[in-house]
Predict the 3D structure of the following.
Amino acid sequence: MTRVRVTAPRSAARPATEPREAAEESAMGQVFVRSLIRSQLRLALVVAGGFLLILGAFPLLLGAIPGLAETRIAGIPFDWLLLGAGIYPVTGISAWLYIRSATRNEARYRDLAEDKW
Amino acid sequence: MSPALGIAAIAAVSVATAVIGFYGLRISRTTGDFYVASRTVRPWWNASAIGGEYLSAASFLGVAGLILLSGTDALWYPAGYTAGYLMLLLFVAAPLRRSGAYTIPDFTEARLDSQAVRRVTSLAVVIVGWLYIVPQLHGAALTIRTTTGLPPWVGSTAVVVVVCLTVVAGGMRSITFVQAFQYWLKLTALAVPIIFIVLVLGGNDFPGQAAPATNPTGLAPAGPYQNISLLVALLFGTLGLPHVLVRFYTNPDGHSARRTTLIVLGLLSVFYLFPTAFGLLGRVFAPELAHTGQADAVVLLLPGRLIGGPAGELLSALVVAGAFAAFLSTTSGLVVSLAGVISQDVLGGSVRGFRLAALVSAVVPLGLAFTTDSLALAGSVGLVFAFTASTICPVLLLGIWWRGLTDAGAIAGMVTGGALCGGAMVAGTVLGAAGTPFWLAQPAAWTVPAAFAVMILTSRATSARVPRTITKVMTRLHTPERPLATER
């Protein structure tokens, strides 16, 4: 018969308090929270602004270059391609970049917060 | 197409919806299951379900119809419908999930610690939901009239009956599966006919012979004001839609809420290529539909016209099935979220109350649909977005990102936005499409800033009323959940 030593898994060495509760209560925690909110808001505004600039540039581009709207690619006029299909990759790339940066902001917050508790 | 085939297609979709709904019944037992599927839905399922719910009559029929009517100006609709999701991702998705609330009124109540705010938000949600269901029922009426020759009321009534049966039987757990199935059905129903049409037309120098730029109605092109106002409505309206927001609570955490939104953006981007293609083909091959007031039916009629024969009939039946999937999915999503709000606020939050509330949520818009005329579908849905952007959007955005928001400010802003935008909608209905000035027809560009301004100024004036729980709530909204190694 083999004997097995039963111990608590090492990963269970968690801080006694929930990180969130600690963040709510301490002044230091609130500094981190405010800085996280500010950086997430700044990130969201930058991505939204960039996206809207590109969106606004589409009709300006079509207006600025005469004949561009009527240029046909595979039989489809260019303005249809640009507004009907070209917008979607811009949306997707903006979303992807945002998620990457937002996740990184949260990881940074976690590193800071976990060091403290 | 033959009426029998159309009826068969509609019956097949309805039966499939009911069967998946009843299958889901077996795994939804508690009140929590009924509301939000216990927050255990995987991102791909959830994203398909959100896509299924979001792509309504306006997207399936209305976008192509408007493109047929007004050409490239109408391309802003699908672009805005998609970009609205980007705004949702940037400003709302993760914090809203982390708030842990079931519905938008739950969120505003928790954030502002006020029952009064809750009641005003609930009222706004119910109005938005009812206004949004009406165009779905108009779409169903149009589809029935165009494809089967039955009286239009049969279509709207059929949608309400199927939705009530599914929702009352299964709640949101089964709704998630139903919606996910319906996204893929809708995509197939538009993509397959387009592929066939392109193959058939391939030899005929597609679509070069006729200029799609010709304007079949001779309507004046939209000016920059209309386009900007429309974009404001769509960008800010999406992030306040009750049936879309309730889906975010089904994500396990904030991070997966973001991932889900990214997948939704992909699904929407793929989907909208096809209504756009239908609109373009319609302008080339069936411009007379715009003159006869059948623009919204272009998606339904085009496969039969361009392909013909038994193949055309079958493709038409597929499109009809997809259209009904659109009406059913959006209506059921709205009914679930409305029923959640009504049952919690009025009926005490029991499962029985939820079922009763679901009936009320579906039957009232049916009455509205019978007593109103169908405008252009995408246009009337655009107005609902404007209303949402003027009421629910400001309270969500400021609630999530600004500590200074107070209950008084939130109520003042929602009432102002609702009154201005609602007034513009009523005035537009009274004056008719021809007599409405452009700034009343597209009110979002001034009603949304007005709502924000009133909300901010009133909050500033009543800054003593900022709830004492603010630090706790903001921490909860913005900090990540329990650390997970996989998220790094």
